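pinned: reference chain
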Amino acid sequence: MSRLKTLTNGILIENPVLVLVLGTCPSMAVSTQVSNAIGMGIAATFVLVCSNAAISLLRNVIPDKVRIPCYIVLIAGFVTLVQMIVEAYAYSLYQALGIYLPLIVVNCIILGRAEMYANKHGVIDSVLDGVGMGAGFTLAIILMSSIREIFGNGTWFGLRLPVLYNNNISIFTMAPGGFVVYGLLIALVNKLTKGDAAKRKALACARCPSALACGISADGEGAAE
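pinned: its structure tokens
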């Protein structure tokens, strides 16, 4: 049951986009069309699963003082592999994702799971965590992109929708519309979980890999300036 919980946590209770509020930049950027969102979700999930597995295997070998640079090197290797595959076999998707595909390297979801989970658990559990978090990320941006594409373009997955195609609300394809949809989805998740998800200790700044660099104490409070 604990492994099932590990697998399913990322879908709703600890959804990286709608609860942990991570990966906001790619979520907003690629969520104007469902096809782009699916491509980004699959690519990020692949990198997340592979990097979690590799870091879990090497967690006793990587020196603690240089673990973050080592994580980034491993993640960059998998991102380069994904980028080459997408460019070779899905060039239109490669062009649509643009700079956000190589920027998976610095996606805080991947680095965050490496530091908070893969660095402390076995390979199987780390892989399940990667699958769950990747699925949560993918579902969140598919939901966002569906709303934005339907109302902003009057299409869904490129298919024209009656009435909406000729009466679309173009602001949904722009940044303001994206933020509105994002906020509404976060509110919906809080409603469904009765606010419990947003109160989880995992959201505290002290759990962030960069907490020490920001001057955050163990209790999550910032250093006085």
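why pinned: The longest helix spans residues 123-153. Strands lie at 155-156, 159-160.
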